Amino acid sequence: MATLVCRSAFISDVHLGLRDCKAGYLLDFLRRLRCEQLYLVGDIIDLEALARRPWWHPLHSAVLGELLAHAARGTRLTYIPGNHDAALRALAGRSVAGIEIALDAVHVGGDGRRYRVSHGDEYDPEGQGRAWTRFGNFMQNLVCGANRHFNALRGVFGLPYLPLSLALKAQSPQALAYIRAFESRVAAGTRAAGCDGAICGHIHFGHVRAIDGALYLNDGDWIEHCTALVEHADGAMELLHWSEQPAALGRASRDRVLPSPAAVRAFAPLGRHADRQRTLRPAA
Ligand SMILES: [Mn+2]
């Protein structure tokens, strides 16, 4: 089994306890991963969903087991709870089964760059009401349901996993506007905190972007997109999609921010914005 050796790795929005968690792909990723430090950037266990409707799968237990195995092998694990596992914030400052729990963290990269690591829900718009959240959950369930059926059908024909919602979100101007506004707020917060970059999750849209001098790194999710952010020994950050066909979606070294051609195609509708064209189109 090929191993994936890196300096650090970041995953979030796993939502263990939710039917749509792609635990099989995540388990494969975690079994191959060898890193010094693993950050769990929130919404790992969906305590909210479990309170509403208790559901669990043996693969979800296996994911927890694999995380504990990483800790037992000496990987430094940091769990930064998100809004779906917010109850765990009460344990901030403690260590549980070898996993440190923190509200946020500062990660210093192999190249000296400093990143603020947080789930990202603190950047939700002010006064975002409960009705909006319920609507968001409803849409999420709808998209995940469609994604499940779509990929079950692809599986019948022996086709690899393809995140349907990436295409759906990329076609929706409202979704794109929401994503861009979130990214801008994170970038502004990062500059205010005096960091070189931000590493977060929360909006289920993995991305590598430079925004007005701040590096925005979103590690995505394991509900639809199956993405993780990994840091190589030289400090370069890479956004990986992990399924039958792993793919690099973006990369940010100290002097270059670059998505792969595949990512450029997937995120093509975002390219309508001039600054994106300038920043993210790979050199010919
Ligand atoms: Mn979240």
Mind explaining what this structure looks like?
Helix content is 35%, strand content 23%. The chain contains eight helices and 14 strands. It has helices spanning 23-32, 47-52, 58-73, 130-156, 164-171, 173-192, 261-266, 274-280, and strands at 4-11, 33-40, 76-79, 95-96, 99-101, 105-108, 114-117, 197-200, 207-211, 214-218, 227-231, 237-241, 247-252, 257-258. The strands form two sheets. The protein has a nine-stranded mixed sheet. Strands 6-7-8-10-9 form a five-stranded mixed sheet. A hairpin with a 5-residue loop joins strand 12 and strand 13 (247-252). The longest helix is centred in the middle third of the chain and has 27 residues, at 130-156.
Q: How would you summarize what this structure contains?
A:
This protein has one domain (4-280): 4-Layer Sandwich (Purple Acid Phosphatase, chain A, domain 2). Helices cover 35% and strands 23% of the residues. The protein has eight helices and 14 strands.
| Proportion of beta-strand residues | 15-25%
CATH C-level class is Alpha Beta
Instruction: Domain count, please report it.
Output: 1
In this entry the ligands are: manganese (II) ion
Mean pLDDT: 86
Q: Strand count, sense and closure of the main sheet? A: 9 strands, mixed
Q: How many β strands by DSSP?
A: 14
- In DSSP terms, counting alpha (H) and pi (I) runs of 4 or more, how many helices? 8
| CATH superfamily placement | Metallo-dependent phosphatases
CATH-defined fold name = Purple Acid Phosphatase, chain A, domain 2
Fraction of residues in helix = 25-40%
Q: Strands of the biggest beta sheet: in what spatial order?
A: 4-5-3-2-1-11-12-13-14
Q: Which descriptor suits the 3D outline?
A: globular
From the N-terminal CA to the C-terminal CA, the straight-line distance is 35 Å
CATH architecture assignment: 4-Layer Sandwich
Instruction: List low-pLDDT spans.
Output: 269-284
Rg over C-alpha atoms, rounded to the nearest angstrom: 18 Å
Query: SSE string, helix = H, strand = E?
Result: EHEHHEEEEEHHHEEEEEEEHH
How does the helix and strand content classify structurally? Answer: alpha/beta
